[in-house]
From TrEMBL:
Domain of life: Bacteria
UniProtKB keywords: ATP-binding, Nucleotide-binding, Transport
Presence of the UniProt keyword Transport in the record: yes
Protein name: ABC transporter domain-containing protein
Amino acid sequence: MSFVEIDHVSHTYFTPEAAFEAVHNIQMTVEEGEFISLLGPSGCGKTTLLSLIAGLMTPTYGTIYVDGQHPKNLKNTIGYMLQQDYLFPWKTIEQNVLLGLKVMKQLNETSKANALSLLEQMGLKNVRNQTPRQLSGGMRQRVALVRTLAVNPKLLLLDEPFSALDYQTKLKLEDLVFQTLKSFQKTAILVTHDIGEAICMSDRIYLFSKGPGRIHKVFEVPDELRSISPLEARNHLSFTPFFQEIWKELESLENG
């Protein structure tokens, strides 16, 4: 069994007046240690699928297994990182980082030391006693990543975590997250609107069609791009033609 198995999953939102199908008949597998991206037009159900994988909702049809279990039955296996950092402004950076461990009753001297070591690896050793408002957006997102990794999840779900950042910071964080997840051998699923980001961070890209979201096409990222850092990948000779191939498919979906 694959680490993540999504088997004929559809999901419908119901209101008193109507029903809206967000995703339809999604079939997908993710192996342990893989990094995949979900790409597609706005409203194609990418974030809905991420929420289903996280166990925040139950699919209307179909089943999802993560590490052989239904997501709702899992503890500490899935980490979720969003566009906004959601740090508590009245707590210090150290307190924010340790919050997940505390909530899950995993906070002890060993787990605290590991979390603070990770904070240091992210270049944030000197800000542990500061508050979020004293940090830049990029630094806050690094804190959010440390908080997510501190509980040692096997699967990391990333919902456009770099979209609110300036371009230079975004590129730096792409490299940092890529290298961090590879070194910790984490499995990751990224939702993004950025083709370049999907290419330079992923092993495989799922392109979704809109209304309701279906898997339109799957792209395997070339080995020569997968084996180098995101910044290096953006400057590789293979990057532009692969970008254009995905761009044409995405344009056909948005104009169709």
